[in-house]
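User: I want to check something. If I give you two sequences, will you return the structure for each one separately, not as a complex?

Assistant: Yes, each is folded on its own. Here is the first sequence with its structure:
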Amino acid sequence: MTFKYSICHPEKEDMEYKNNPISEKEVLEIAKNYPWIEKLNLSDTLNPENVYYSPSLDFTNLKNGKSFCLTAGYDKNKKLEFSLWYNRPIKVKVLFGLLGKKEKMVVDDFWSLDFEKSMKYLEYFVNGNYSIIEELYSK
Protein backbone atom coordinates (compact mmCIF):
# COMPACT_ATOMS: atom_id res chain seq x y z
CA MET A 1 0.00 0.00 0.00
CA THR A 2 1.07 3.57 -0.58
CA PHE A 3 0.22 6.71 1.34
CA LYS A 4 0.51 10.47 1.28
CA TYR A 5 0.52 12.69 4.33
CA SER A 6 0.11 16.17 5.68
CA ILE A 7 1.65 17.97 8.63
CA CYS A 8 0.06 20.52 10.92
CA HIS A 9 2.74 22.75 12.43
CA PRO A 10 1.76 24.80 15.49
CA GLU A 11 3.46 27.93 14.16
CA LYS A 12 2.24 27.77 10.54
CA GLU A 13 -1.17 28.88 9.35
CA ASP A 14 -1.13 26.53 6.34
CA MET A 15 -0.83 22.77 6.49
CA GLU A 16 2.13 21.17 4.73
CA TYR A 17 1.15 18.56 2.16
CA LYS A 18 3.50 15.72 1.19
CA ASN A 19 1.91 14.17 -1.89
CA ASN A 20 4.76 11.91 -3.00
CA PRO A 21 3.70 8.30 -2.38
CA ILE A 22 5.33 6.64 0.62
CA SER A 23 5.34 3.04 1.88
CA GLU A 24 3.96 1.54 5.09
CA LYS A 25 7.47 1.45 6.52
CA GLU A 26 8.04 5.13 5.72
CA VAL A 27 4.74 6.07 7.40
CA LEU A 28 5.84 4.38 10.62
CA GLU A 29 9.34 5.91 10.47
CA ILE A 30 7.98 9.41 9.91
CA ALA A 31 5.59 9.14 12.85
CA LYS A 32 8.11 7.55 15.21
CA ASN A 33 10.81 10.11 14.39
CA TYR A 34 8.63 13.21 14.28
CA PRO A 35 9.73 15.81 16.87
CA TRP A 36 6.45 15.68 18.82
CA ILE A 37 7.79 17.06 22.10
CA GLU A 38 9.80 19.80 20.40
CA LYS A 39 6.70 20.93 18.51
CA LEU A 40 4.63 20.95 21.72
CA ASN A 41 7.35 22.94 23.47
CA LEU A 42 7.34 25.40 20.57
CA SER A 43 3.57 25.77 20.97
CA ASP A 44 4.08 26.65 24.62
CA THR A 45 6.46 29.49 23.70
CA LEU A 46 4.13 31.11 21.16
CA ASN A 47 1.41 33.62 21.87
CA PRO A 48 -1.91 31.73 21.85
CA GLU A 49 -3.12 33.70 18.82
CA ASN A 50 -0.04 32.48 16.90
CA VAL A 51 -0.73 28.78 17.54
CA TYR A 52 -2.61 27.46 14.54
CA TYR A 53 -2.64 23.71 15.20
CA SER A 54 -1.65 21.06 17.64
CA PRO A 55 1.23 19.05 16.16
CA SER A 56 -0.36 16.51 13.81
CA LEU A 57 0.45 14.02 11.08
CA ASP A 58 -2.35 12.80 8.84
CA PHE A 59 -1.73 9.76 6.63
CA THR A 60 -4.03 8.86 3.72
CA ASN A 61 -4.16 5.52 1.94
CA LEU A 62 -3.96 6.37 -1.77
CA LYS A 63 -5.99 3.35 -2.84
CA ASN A 64 -9.04 3.51 -0.57
CA GLY A 65 -8.99 7.12 0.71
CA LYS A 66 -9.03 6.14 4.39
CA SER A 67 -6.95 8.37 6.60
CA PHE A 68 -5.48 8.20 10.08
CA CYS A 69 -4.30 11.24 11.99
CA LEU A 70 -2.14 11.51 15.10
CA THR A 71 -2.46 14.74 17.09
CA ALA A 72 -0.09 15.35 20.00
CA GLY A 73 -0.77 17.01 23.31
CA TYR A 74 0.17 16.77 26.96
CA ASP A 75 -1.82 15.10 29.69
CA LYS A 76 -2.29 16.75 33.09
CA ASN A 77 1.17 15.49 34.14
CA LYS A 78 2.83 16.98 31.03
CA LYS A 79 3.31 13.51 29.52
CA LEU A 80 3.01 13.11 25.77
CA GLU A 81 -0.37 11.77 24.66
CA PHE A 82 -2.26 11.54 21.39
CA SER A 83 -5.70 11.80 19.94
CA LEU A 84 -6.35 9.53 16.97
CA TRP A 85 -8.62 10.55 14.11
CA TYR A 86 -9.85 7.87 11.72
CA ASN A 87 -11.58 8.90 8.50
CA ARG A 88 -13.26 6.17 6.47
CA PRO A 89 -16.36 5.45 4.42
CA ILE A 90 -19.33 3.85 6.13
CA LYS A 91 -22.75 2.92 4.76
CA VAL A 92 -25.56 5.15 6.00
CA LYS A 93 -29.29 4.90 5.45
CA VAL A 94 -30.86 7.49 3.19
CA LEU A 95 -34.25 8.74 4.41
CA PHE A 96 -34.44 6.17 7.22
CA GLY A 97 -33.52 3.42 4.77
CA LEU A 98 -36.37 4.13 2.38
CA LEU A 99 -33.90 5.02 -0.35
CA GLY A 100 -31.36 2.35 0.57
CA LYS A 101 -27.83 3.06 1.73
CA LYS A 102 -24.95 5.14 0.45
CA GLU A 103 -21.32 5.55 1.46
CA LYS A 104 -20.34 8.60 3.43
CA MET A 105 -16.93 9.56 4.84
CA VAL A 106 -17.00 9.70 8.64
CA VAL A 107 -14.32 10.83 11.10
CA ASP A 108 -14.11 9.36 14.59
CA ASP A 109 -11.71 10.47 17.29
CA PHE A 110 -10.22 8.78 20.33
CA TRP A 111 -8.33 10.72 23.00
CA SER A 112 -5.59 10.15 25.55
CA LEU A 113 -3.43 7.36 24.18
CA ASP A 114 0.27 7.14 24.93
CA PHE A 115 2.94 7.13 22.23
CA GLU A 116 3.39 3.35 22.05
CA LYS A 117 -0.33 2.58 21.75
CA SER A 118 -0.77 5.33 19.18
CA MET A 119 2.05 3.90 17.07
CA LYS A 120 0.47 0.44 17.34
CA TYR A 121 -2.83 1.77 15.96
CA LEU A 122 -0.95 3.54 13.17
CA GLU A 123 0.69 0.21 12.38
CA TYR A 124 -2.75 -1.44 12.22
CA PHE A 125 -3.83 1.29 9.80
CA VAL A 126 -0.88 0.97 7.43
CA ASN A 127 -1.22 -2.82 7.43
CA GLY A 128 -4.94 -2.62 6.59
CA ASN A 129 -6.13 -4.07 9.92
CA TYR A 130 -9.11 -1.73 9.98
CA SER A 131 -11.32 -3.97 12.14
CA ILE A 132 -8.93 -3.52 15.09
CA ILE A 133 -9.13 0.24 14.67
CA GLU A 134 -12.93 0.06 14.46
CA GLU A 135 -12.96 -1.71 17.85
CA LEU A 136 -11.23 1.30 19.41
CA TYR A 137 -14.04 3.58 18.25
CA SER A 138 -16.85 1.26 19.30
CA LYS A 139 -15.84 1.42 22.99
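And separately, the second sequence with its own structure:
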Amino acid sequence: MSGFRMYLRVVSESLQPAEVSERLGMEPDEATSIGSRRRPQSPPRSQSTWIRHASTEAGARPEHLEPVVLGWGPDLAASLGRLVDSGEAAVSLVLVQEIRDLEDPQQKGIFLGPDLMAWVGAARASLDIDQYVYHECGGATDLGGQ
Protein backbone atom coordinates (compact mmCIF):
# COMPACT_ATOMS: atom_id res chain seq x y z
CA MET A 1 0.00 0.00 0.00
CA SER A 2 1.39 3.37 -1.00
CA GLY A 3 1.19 6.30 1.35
CA PHE A 4 0.99 9.52 -0.65
CA ARG A 5 -1.55 12.33 -0.43
CA MET A 6 -1.55 15.61 -2.33
CA TYR A 7 -3.62 18.73 -1.82
CA LEU A 8 -3.77 22.39 -2.73
CA ARG A 9 -3.89 24.78 0.23
CA VAL A 10 -4.76 28.48 0.15
CA VAL A 11 -4.23 30.43 3.38
CA SER A 12 -5.44 33.99 3.90
CA GLU A 13 -5.57 36.44 6.78
CA SER A 14 -8.11 38.65 4.97
CA LEU A 15 -10.31 36.46 2.73
CA GLN A 16 -12.92 33.97 3.88
CA PRO A 17 -13.22 30.62 2.02
CA ALA A 18 -16.28 31.78 0.05
CA GLU A 19 -14.30 34.75 -1.27
CA VAL A 20 -11.42 32.46 -2.27
CA SER A 21 -13.89 30.15 -4.04
CA GLU A 22 -15.38 33.12 -5.91
CA ARG A 23 -11.94 34.26 -7.08
CA LEU A 24 -10.91 30.75 -8.13
CA GLY A 25 -14.22 29.60 -9.61
CA MET A 26 -13.98 26.36 -7.66
CA GLU A 27 -15.26 25.08 -4.32
CA PRO A 28 -12.92 23.58 -1.71
CA ASP A 29 -13.10 20.04 -0.37
CA GLU A 30 -12.63 21.50 3.10
CA ALA A 31 -12.20 24.93 4.58
CA THR A 32 -11.88 26.87 7.83
CA SER A 33 -12.95 30.46 8.34
CA ILE A 34 -11.27 33.38 10.03
CA GLY A 35 -12.72 33.60 13.53
CA SER A 36 -13.82 29.96 13.66
CA ARG A 37 -12.61 27.73 16.47
CA ARG A 38 -11.26 24.19 16.45
CA ARG A 39 -12.87 23.59 19.86
CA PRO A 40 -15.04 25.94 21.94
CA GLN A 41 -12.11 26.73 24.26
CA SER A 42 -9.65 27.31 21.37
CA PRO A 43 -8.77 30.86 20.33
CA PRO A 44 -10.39 32.12 17.12
CA ARG A 45 -8.46 31.38 13.96
CA SER A 46 -6.56 34.35 12.56
CA GLN A 47 -6.55 32.96 9.02
CA SER A 48 -8.75 30.98 6.70
CA THR A 49 -7.76 27.82 4.85
CA TRP A 50 -9.17 26.58 1.56
CA ILE A 51 -8.17 23.01 0.63
CA ARG A 52 -8.70 20.97 -2.53
CA HIS A 53 -7.59 17.31 -2.47
CA ALA A 54 -6.05 15.54 -5.45
CA SER A 55 -7.42 12.03 -5.36
CA THR A 56 -7.59 9.14 -7.76
CA GLU A 57 -8.65 5.51 -7.74
CA ALA A 58 -5.59 4.45 -9.74
CA GLY A 59 -3.29 4.56 -6.75
CA ALA A 60 -1.60 7.09 -4.59
CA ARG A 61 1.86 7.65 -6.03
CA PRO A 62 2.71 11.24 -6.99
CA GLU A 63 2.69 10.33 -10.67
CA HIS A 64 -0.94 9.16 -10.27
CA LEU A 65 -1.95 12.35 -8.46
CA GLU A 66 -0.18 14.71 -10.86
CA PRO A 67 -2.81 14.42 -13.66
CA VAL A 68 -5.52 15.35 -11.15
CA VAL A 69 -3.79 18.65 -10.37
CA LEU A 70 -3.07 19.32 -14.04
CA GLY A 71 -6.75 18.56 -14.73
CA TRP A 72 -7.71 21.54 -12.58
CA GLY A 73 -6.39 23.50 -15.52
CA PRO A 74 -4.19 26.47 -16.35
CA ASP A 75 -7.01 28.92 -15.57
CA LEU A 76 -7.02 27.83 -11.92
CA ALA A 77 -3.23 28.13 -11.77
CA ALA A 78 -3.45 31.65 -13.21
CA SER A 79 -6.19 32.61 -10.73
CA LEU A 80 -4.08 31.30 -7.86
CA GLY A 81 -1.11 33.28 -9.16
CA ARG A 82 -3.18 36.47 -9.23
CA LEU A 83 -4.37 35.80 -5.69
CA VAL A 84 -0.78 35.36 -4.49
CA ASP A 85 0.39 38.44 -6.40
CA SER A 86 -2.36 40.48 -4.70
CA GLY A 87 -0.78 39.69 -1.33
CA GLU A 88 -4.09 38.40 -0.01
CA ALA A 89 -3.15 34.72 0.19
CA ALA A 90 -0.38 32.16 0.18
CA VAL A 91 -0.72 29.01 -1.91
CA SER A 92 0.95 25.63 -1.41
CA LEU A 93 0.81 22.31 -3.18
CA VAL A 94 1.34 19.83 -0.36
CA LEU A 95 2.61 16.29 -0.86
CA VAL A 96 2.47 14.01 2.18
CA GLN A 97 4.43 10.76 2.08
CA GLU A 98 4.03 8.04 4.70
CA ILE A 99 6.51 5.16 4.64
CA ARG A 100 5.36 2.17 6.67
CA ASP A 101 7.32 -0.59 4.91
CA LEU A 102 10.96 0.25 4.27
CA GLU A 103 11.23 -2.62 1.78
CA ASP A 104 8.26 -1.56 -0.40
CA PRO A 105 9.61 0.25 -3.49
CA GLN A 106 6.17 1.87 -4.04
CA GLN A 107 6.64 3.83 -0.82
CA LYS A 108 10.01 5.29 -1.82
CA GLY A 109 10.97 8.06 -4.17
CA ILE A 110 9.15 11.12 -5.37
CA PHE A 111 8.93 12.13 -9.01
CA LEU A 112 7.22 15.35 -10.03
CA GLY A 113 7.11 16.06 -13.73
CA PRO A 114 7.89 19.33 -15.51
CA ASP A 115 4.23 19.98 -16.36
CA LEU A 116 3.28 19.86 -12.69
CA MET A 117 6.19 22.10 -11.75
CA ALA A 118 5.14 24.60 -14.43
CA TRP A 119 1.57 24.53 -13.01
CA VAL A 120 2.95 25.16 -9.50
CA GLY A 121 5.01 28.05 -10.89
CA ALA A 122 2.01 29.60 -12.65
CA ALA A 123 0.06 29.32 -9.40
CA ARG A 124 2.90 31.08 -7.54
CA ALA A 125 2.65 28.20 -5.09
CA SER A 126 5.23 26.72 -2.79
CA LEU A 127 5.79 22.98 -2.92
CA ASP A 128 5.62 21.49 0.58
CA ILE A 129 6.75 17.89 1.03
CA ASP A 130 6.00 16.28 4.38
CA GLN A 131 7.61 12.88 4.90
CA TYR A 132 6.86 10.48 7.75
CA VAL A 133 8.69 7.20 8.30
CA TYR A 134 7.02 4.69 10.62
CA HIS A 135 9.58 2.07 11.54
CA GLU A 136 9.89 -0.22 14.52
CA CYS A 137 13.39 -1.09 15.57
CA GLY A 138 13.66 -4.81 16.25
CA GLY A 139 15.41 -5.91 19.43
CA ALA A 140 18.19 -4.24 21.32
CA THR A 141 20.71 -2.08 19.57
CA ASP A 142 24.40 -2.56 20.33
CA LEU A 143 25.88 0.88 20.78
CA GLY A 144 29.42 -0.52 20.85
CA GLY A 145 30.40 -0.43 24.45
CA GLN A 146 29.96 -1.47 28.05
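Because they were folded independently, the notes below concern the second chain alone. The CA atoms of residues 62 and 107 lie 10 Å apart. Helices lie at 17-24, 62-71, 74-85, 114-122.
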